[in-house]
Amino acid sequence: MGTVALLQDADLSPEAAAVFAEIRALRGTDYVNNFWRALAHDPAGLRAVWDRLKVVMAPGALDPLVKEMLYVAVSTANGCGYCIHSHTAAAKAKGMTTEQHAELLAVVGMAMQTNGLVQGLGVEVDAVFKA
Amino acid sequence: MGTVALLQDADLSPEAAAVFAEIRALRGTDYVNNFWRALAHDPAGLRAVWDRLKVVMAPGALDPLVKEMLYVAVSTANGCGYCIHSHTAAAKAKGMTTEQHAELLAVVGMAMQTNGLVQGLGVEVDAVFKA
Amino acid sequence: MGTVALLQDADLSPEAAAVFAEIRALRGTDYVNNFWRALAHDPAGLRAVWDRLKVVMAPGALDPLVKEMLYVAVSTANGCGYCIHSHTAAAKAKGMTTEQHAELLAVVGMAMQTNGLVQGLGVEVDAVFKA
Amino acid sequence: MGTVALLQDADLSPEAAAVFAEIRALRGTDYVNNFWRALAHDPAGLRAVWDRLKVVMAPGALDPLVKEMLYVAVSTANGCGYCIHSHTAAAKAKGMTTEQHAELLAVVGMAMQTNGLVQGLGVEVDAVFKA
Amino acid sequence: MGTVALLQDADLSPEAAAVFAEIRALRGTDYVNNFWRALAHDPAGLRAVWDRLKVVMAPGALDPLVKEMLYVAVSTANGCGYCIHSHTAAAKAKGMTTEQHAELLAVVGMAMQTNGLVQGLGVEVDAVFKA
Amino acid sequence: MGTVALLQDADLSPEAAAVFAEIRALRGTDYVNNFWRALAHDPAGLRAVWDRLKVVMAPGALDPLVKEMLYVAVSTANGCGYCIHSHTAAAKAKGMTTEQHAELLAVVGMAMQTNGLVQGLGVEVDAVFKA
Fold first, then answer.
1. Could you give the CA distance from residue D110 to residue A113 in angstroms, rounded to a whole number?
2. D109, B80: Cβ pair inside 8 Å?
3. pLDDT tens, E22-60?
4. Can you tell me the distance from the alpha carbon of E88 to that of D96, in angstroms, rounded to the nearest whole number?
5. Domains of chain C
6. Orientation angle between helical segments A64-78 and B64-78, nearest 10 degrees
7. Nearest-CA distance C121 → chain A (Å)
8. pTM for the whole thing?
């Protein structure tokens, strides 16, 4: 019921079907969520987003759970309800506890509050904070 | 040069001075950054923000470095330049490496991109993502 | 089910009814969408928005389809679901193809990503970019 | 040094000059701030914004100071530094006290915080809140 | 159906139950809205938000109705549908008339428009606007 | 003076230098703007953004000037000053006239205004607008 229909498996182009197969394999589940079904109208875009997402969210200098929480933080500031739900679910699947979730939201709320205060006060960046 | 003057130590009310003393003690430095100097016109607000910030950013279920990175993520999505600079500096002070900083920004960029795609596609939340 | 009731035709003030008549005439359809029905509680505001919208969205140095796509782009960055849906529908009615829609969203997503990276990096404007 | 040059009085089209004359007359000062000088490249847009702004910000069911504070609140949430500065100055010119400014910012900060919490928690609107 | 379940009274910790009792007493109603039921998973956060909210929204240099309208303005700019609905309802309960609501939204719309114009034009802050 | 230093050519890793060479070749100028110099601390991220940007902004179903204007629209809604400046300059370089720039900003301002009104009114999406 969005601005495009959600594509079912039978509707996919071969390029999109190949991405869906990778999503299923990497995640170990047959379920492919609505975002990918909406994006599949643009197989090249689907491929580009999926390929980059895999790399960005993979273990690296930051662990995958921290990355999911960062994703939730950005999505919350942007008010993207779908993104908040999907990445909160992903964070829980990667082990986020109730306490961690509460602290994540407390930091987000605190950051939102001081963002507003700083902007309203028009505070200039301290020279010591510049690289 | 913002919407209020930055208060110097000599201008502080006793209540604001007490908060500045706590900031200096907790951080182990005499330097008090511009945000607190702008906020000090409202000593009760200064006290409330500082008291809550200390609790929210303290070690808990999430470590303080992760919390600073979440703060940067929210501030980036909100486009609060001051907040980005001050919390990036704080994250570096808590040990954020160049690689971690790069991954943090990569996740933020990825989240911004998919936030835009999801909103533009009008994707409805999958039932499996709801608590 | 919003913060105000949607006014039905029988509920309109004469000033609001006159605007509805213009909307119907210009668009060649009897259907008046929810935005105007919610805004009709403020007939002067309704008139002002409609009069300006007609001018801004009319053919000019930019063609109306490009203007609708710009509208979708802004609404997406702001996360206004209603606006995204209504202006995506308007763009389709003005001939936006599936390929154009996909490219529109790809640009939006790319812009969101680099907006986040630029803000997080705190990049200063190059002198050559200033008018 | 923005994306367009700031027009000086000698550069104005007759239509833009007429708007500048009205701004000076209504405000009782010769000073015309940068926003109008940037917008003056588009005389029809300048006229439309000025004409609507006069009406919206005039005394009505809300007093002009309250309207200026609402303007600051929106501009703060949007992170528009210019708008925050100009409308904070306007609010001060209309009598906003230091205490009122502090309370304005405290409400803005509180709203930002709970906006973040509500979005992060994905709270659905209570039926009792719908009109 | 959000990212956490809404806690019913029987599920509350003693700390959360104490906050709910205060909410009911201060508001003179047994109804506790969804935000608090979602936040109650984090009793310390619930307590902190409620304690600060009471102070910030209490009568002071600004009257409580003005504060509710400022809350609506921020929430609208942030696109937080829940917050818009709950604080619009609160403003109505504190006496906001239909005319005041219309003017509030007109100011919000005007501010959004000039925020966009100012940002797009890249206007620099006039020296006279700096404190 | 951002959160990372701007890398000069002599500081680049071989991977980053290869991307800079491509930027110079495609654009036909030796000038590489600050964004890329800030991003070059993360050669893999630099490569990924550049590779995707080239594809997304290339001629397709939409012409490159329209794409630059869409980029400006998103960046304006997000308040990313750097992005507004750089993509407005790019749009001018691709032939955007003064009149087109004025209309672009007028549409952005209009969209911002109705985004605010729609959100404040809590308007639900008309069934006819859903795909």
1. 6
2. no
3. 999 999 999 999 999 999 999 999 999 999 999 999 999
4. 24
5. 1-58 (1.20.1290.10), 59-131 (1.20.1290.10)
6. 30
7. 10
8. 0.98
